Amino acid sequence: MEMKQIIQTQKTDNGPVRLPLDNESHSFDDWTISYTKSHILKSVCTNDNKCVAGEPNCCELCVYNFALELPHLPDMVFHKNVLVISHKSGARLEFNPMDALKLVRNEKLDLKVACSDEWKGSRQAADTQEKVKPFDWSFTTEYTGTVNDGIRVEKTDQKIDMFKLMKREPIHFYHDLTLFEDELHDHGISVLSVKVRVMPSGFYILQRFFLRVDHVLIRINDTRFHYEKGSNYILREYTHREAKIEQLRHVPPALFTSPNEIADHLPVISRINEKLIIVANDSEQEVSS
Ligand SMILES: [Zn+2]
What's the CA-to-centroid distance between 44 and ligand 1, angstroms? Predict the structure, then answer.
């Protein structure tokens, strides 16, 4: 606690000292952009496996295990890493690992991988008490953030203008957070992260799920958000890209470990464009801009 206060007091707008913070908040017009971050979820129950679902003293690990029916969580779950975008109307967009993991399909992964039996076996051995059900051990998620009822989601043809976003602008606030990560027992990586950037013209968010199963495939589920100053909606663009490694023979394998570099080489499998419209608190009226 003391340390936290010391760190917080050293944060100044123009001072050179800028130590890592475990939370921060930035105001932009009618918006507040804030995050919290902390250590990873512990891998053992702190109550000696006596936690009961729904009870207030339930440990953080058990809260996850009770809420998710996954036989295994990713190696690293950053359960306290949360990004929140809130509007003065009450509208709220949030990114958290729990909601993302709720969308991992609890069913057998339809992917033939030489290593998978070995991999499952090692997980099984680590947890002999439990019968390991088939599950999507790639932790693939189609999570696109969590919105409250202050936001109405509509399909749109309007796309995010990437040229506008590439325009040079001062960056007033930037942060990136990892929500979960798993190294697939040294057979690749599965990671979900989110980053936010606030500029004078608006804000931009990129949430990225990156999966690489070595020698098998690469998948990227990106969700981009763009809010332009003065408008009453945020554009959301979800893109699922993937390719089998055998389709990527023309690409230098060095790029396989770099999501930014490999993304352009992966064909788009699906794309969804939506508008997140900010609605007023007490009615379904859209907030005027
Ligand atoms: Zn527990």
Answer: 7
